[in-house]
Amino acid sequence: MSEPTLRKSTLASTVRHSVTRVPMGVRCIALCAVLVFANLPAIVFAQSSCPGIHVNILNIKNSAGAVACALFEAPDGFPNEFMRSAVNLMMIKVRDKEAHCHFIDIPLGTYALAVIHDENRNGKLDTNWLGVPTEGYGFSSGAKALMSAPSFDAASFPYDGGNLELTISLN
User: How far apart are CA 91 and CA 88, in angstroms?
Assistant: First the structure.
């Protein structure tokens, strides 16, 4: 072998050995550090949830059927005509007596929410022969139904475009 070829192979083997002599633990730590610093902006600026109206529904008596969350922006049809009048309607399957509705991309404004536990999934709040509801229902802003459903004004709340967390307990 000629002298220049010998020098190249000695140099190559020295470089090769210096890379393989780095302990595995050090390589793992270096890789983890690179991954953490690469994702640091995403970790620092992450939000817990998307801007919108997030509704947690409490007091669901069983896991049958679905929960209908109807978002209204005007008194017209509130709360009974949710299939025609709500600006946003969400049907969520009940799991383990829990349900959550998430409305995103909602413009600024004043809104009211009506929630029903549609146990038989017929798209309406069932009542007995006296007109008393037999399925769970609830409204935003703690509005109560006494002799009839509350008004839009009683259930309304302002929305500023941020992240709004609401809790509605069913009756």
Answer: 10
Report the number of distinct structural domains present in the chain: 2
Domain that holds residue 165: 52-169
Cα separation values, 88 from 71, 85, 102, 130, 151, Å: 5, 9, 10, 30, 18
Say what the pTM is: 0.69
Q: Name the residue among 54, 140, 60 with its Cα closest to residue 94.
A: 60
Q: Give the number of other Cβ atoms within 10 Å of residue 99's Cβ.
A: 25
SS3 of residue 82 by DSSP: helix
* DSSP-derived secondary structure letter, 46: -
Block residue for tokens 């050995």:
17
pLDDT digits (tens, 9 = 90+) for 120-161: 999 888 999 998 899 999 999 999 988 889 999 999 999 999
Structure tokens at 25: 């633990």
3-state secondary structure of 103: strand
Three-state SS at 4: helix
Strand spans (E) along the chain? 52-58, 66-72, 88-93, 99-104, 109-118, 137-139, 156-159, 163-169
**Domain identity same for 33 and 61:** no
